Amino acid sequence: MKMTSLRLLLWCFSGVITRNHCLPPIGTQPEQVHISYPGLKNSMLITWSSANETESVVEYGVWGGKLFTHSAKGTESVFVNEGVEQRVMFIHRVLLSNLTPGASYVYHCGSSFGWSDIFFFSALNESDNGRIGDEFMRQIESIAAYTPYMTCPGNHEWVANFSQYRSRFSMPGDTESLWYSWNIGPAHIISFSTEVYFYLEFGLDLLFTQYQWLRSDLEVRMGRNDTTPPAPGLEDLFYQYGVDLELWAHEHTYERLWPVYNYKVLNGSSEEPYVNPKAPVHIITGSAGCREKHDGFIPHPRDWSAFRSSDYGYTRMHVINHTHLYLEQVSDDQYGKVIDKMMLVKEKHGAHAWS
Ligand SMILES: *[C@@H]1O[C@H](CO)[C@@H](O)[C@H](O)[C@H]1NC(C)=O
Ligand SMILES: *[C@@H]1O[C@H](CO)[C@@H](O)[C@H](O)[C@H]1NC(C)=O
Ligand SMILES: *[C@@H]1O[C@H](CO)[C@@H](O)[C@H](O)[C@H]1NC(C)=O
Ligand SMILES: *[C@@H]1O[C@H](CO)[C@@H](O)[C@H](O)[C@H]1NC(C)=O
Ligand SMILES: *[C@@H]1O[C@H](CO)[C@@H](O)[C@H](O)[C@H]1NC(C)=O
Ligand SMILES: *[C@@H]1O[C@H](CO)[C@@H](O)[C@H](O)[C@H]1NC(C)=O
């Protein structure tokens, strides 16, 4: 910052001769500088705007070394504001690549027609070369070596196209554990990835492939073969095929819902909502969570919310027989206390379960 003011001062002095030089270079002066991680290893994206057209340059260098040893050029685009004034501004983007992971950099942006203040950032130290994955696998060994540890991918697994997840686990089928189904006792259990709806950069076809797979897995189960074109949403699909129970996560909380479909609570009866319900039952069980703490709840629960807890904990499920499924929620914060229970009873399963 000192440097910049010094430079302005010098310009002003020299401007004594030709007055105009003393005016600061307003229209081409960079402003609104911000940085983002572009999702490419060892890189950083610098974005800023200027009122007038100019060049897009970032000068940078490692903190503590010689100032601005590197320079990178980027692109400028025109942004016409949609309001009545139709204001025009120029947005500049410069990608810095081949940064050293974890190293601090000093930079300024603009061009010889005006430089920003001097800022700094630390390049992401994104790769631990799989050591956190190793540590996780070591920690779960105490349970996963003794009892089948069945998984599904979540958003924390996204790095490098879910490669840690795909490479380390061994779930049924040939989808690198991304989605699969299996039978145990009277239950047919499906594991699928909601991440295909969020990480579209890894291929939109994953979303469609999984949807087709889900549909045919449910079809085969239900002995149906409906060939109408699919619309890849999940609630209708699971309702159509009479799925009994859906376990969700991501929120670091526990919530049991009354049977619900399309915003309507469809209890079996108001005395026994889970005996022959008229819609799937949803449980959100993400409170095992990680060290990102708990997620809050909206203050006024919706009609379908039956029980909520933000205690750390986990869910136990017992598929008793063809008609009865028992589920309970254990609180770690309350030293193993069972804080919620549900007995789901269904005499009919599959596509005709709701009639
Ligand atoms: C610089 O931008 C301002 C504001 O948009 C505009 O009024 C002016 O004409 C521009 N100057 C040049 C040289 O383009
Ligand atoms: C980057 O992360 C690794 C693994 O966590 C660590 O050993 C290393 O010291 C970190 N490097 C920097 C520069 O922070
Ligand atoms: C990500 O991984 C999936 C599963 O292996 C694969 O089908 C897809 O093509 C990959 N996407 C990219 C962009 O590599
Ligand atoms: C459904 O029917 C189509 C066309 O008749 C057939 O190609 C497909 O294999 C069937 N799928 C199942 C799961 O039976
Ligand atoms: C569903 O059952 C629960 C528990 O008896 C009750 O509180 C709720 O009002 C019922 N909802 C409807 C729409 O019947
Ligand atoms: C299924 O389990 C429930 C609960 O234990 C029991 O009441 C019911 O009789 C069982 N049904 C059959 C067919 O065994």
UniProtKB/TrEMBL annotation:
Matching CDD domains: MPP_PAPs
Domain Purple acid phosphatase C-terminal: 279-340
S-adenosyl-L-methionine is among the record's keywords: no
Annotated GO MF terms: acid phosphatase activity; metal ion binding
Entry-linked Pfam families: Metallophos (PF00149), Metallophos_C (PF14008), Pur_ac_phosph_N (PF16656)
Coiled-coil region list: none
Signal peptide as annotated in the record: 1-18
Listed SUPFAM superfamilies: Metallo-dependent phosphatases, Purple acid phosphatase, N-terminal domain
Catalytic activity, reaction form: a phosphate monoester + H2O = an alcohol + phosphate
Its EC number(s): 3.1.3.2
Keywords: Glycoprotein, Hydrolase, Signal
Calcineurin-like phosphoesterase domain residues: 128-254
InterPro entries: Calcineurin-like_PHP (IPR004843), Metallo-depent_PP-like (IPR029052), MPP_PAP (IPR041792), PAPs_C (IPR025733), PAPs_N (IPR015914), Purple_acid_Pase-like_N (IPR008963)
Residue span, Purple acid phosphatase N-terminal domain: 30-122
Entry's family note: Belongs to the metallophosphoesterase superfamily. Purple acid phosphatase family.
Designated name of the protein: Purple acid phosphatase
Taxonomic placement: Eukaryota, Metazoa, Chordata, Craniata, Vertebrata
